[in-house]
Amino acid sequence: MSVRPGWYVDPADPETRRYWDGEGWVGAPIPVDATPPEGPPPAEPAPVAAPAPGVPAAHPGQPGPAPQPGHPGVGPYPGQPAQWPGQPTGPGHWPGQPTGAGAPSGPPPGWPYPTWPGRPPLPQPHGLPLATYGARLVARLIDFGVVFLLNVAVNGWFVWRYVEEVAPYLRESFRRALAGNGSTEGLPQPGDQAGGLQIVILLIATALWFAYEVPSMAARGQTFGKRVVGVRAVPVEADQPLGFGRATRRWTTLGLPTMLWYCCGFGLLLQFVDAVSLLFDQPLRQALHDKRAQTVVVQLPRVRPDTRTTARDRANPPGDTP
């Protein structure tokens, strides 16, 4: 996915800022602390190349002279040819390849594909940097803590009843394990309500997670944990609220597998794969739930208090102490 057009710090010269049009840098650089203009920079006039010795200059309205055999074209720097060996002869064309409609645009088989000169710039969706892995992990842990406390308050009685149903089986199994007895004959079975209580517990836990996360993500793109850390989820195509539908699609990929914990922890495995998938996604660091909802998580700028408008301490006004 391409980076949105805009003014970014030039990775080759961090002291300058250049305009990225979605495919490459255009225009002249400006100082990094200067205020960039609205939109792309004005088009630069095409440089007039000085004619080589012995080659007549072209007049306005007439085509320039063809390059002489053995004489390279004039490049962008003095003494540099316009084309180096192994470079395309034109936009998307390589030496020896046909031109015109339907011609292949890549290098011939076996030729090295041209790469970015240096490290490409990090994407900044909607002008905001991507949230780091650590920030997203801390936000998710905070959210898990809040959901756990909600389950203690709402789901606590059902969990206690479930423990009472399976306690005889667990105590006897533990006693036999300590005695070195691996036999399963005569073990007391869990109560008849154990299976139903397990399903009820998972349903309540899933509903609490949905009620905690989806409405706040739909309205603000933030849960409590994301607000604490200072990150926000936004759609890829526009900086706007997620909306209920997109927030639900994003949550179901990560939260709905909670119902499958009943199946030997299979749902927990799915949630783990989703959580670590963003570590291997480039360049937008999207987890599986981000990809399904087409969202990215960005780091919000830290707002510093304006000292010009901050109320002064009346008891200790500025100045020398008498």
TrEMBL record:
Q: Where is the composition biased (Low complexity)?
A: 95-104
Alphabetically ordered keywords of this record: Cell membrane, Membrane, Transmembrane, Transmembrane helix
The ranges of region (Disordered) come to 1-120
Q: Where is the composition biased (Pro residues)?
A: 37-54, 105-120
The DUF2510 domain sits at 5-37
Q: Where is the RDD domain?
A: 131-293
Q: Topology relative to the membrane, per the entry? A: Multi-pass membrane protein
What does the UniProt entry say about where the protein is found?
Cell membrane
Which regions span the lipid bilayer?
141-160, 194-212, 259-280
The record, for InterPro entries, names: DUF2510, Pra-immunoreactive, RDD
Q: Name the PANTHER family for this protein.
A: MEMBRANE PROTEIN, PROLINE-RICH ANTIGEN HOMOLOG-RELATED
This protein is called: DUF2510 domain-containing protein
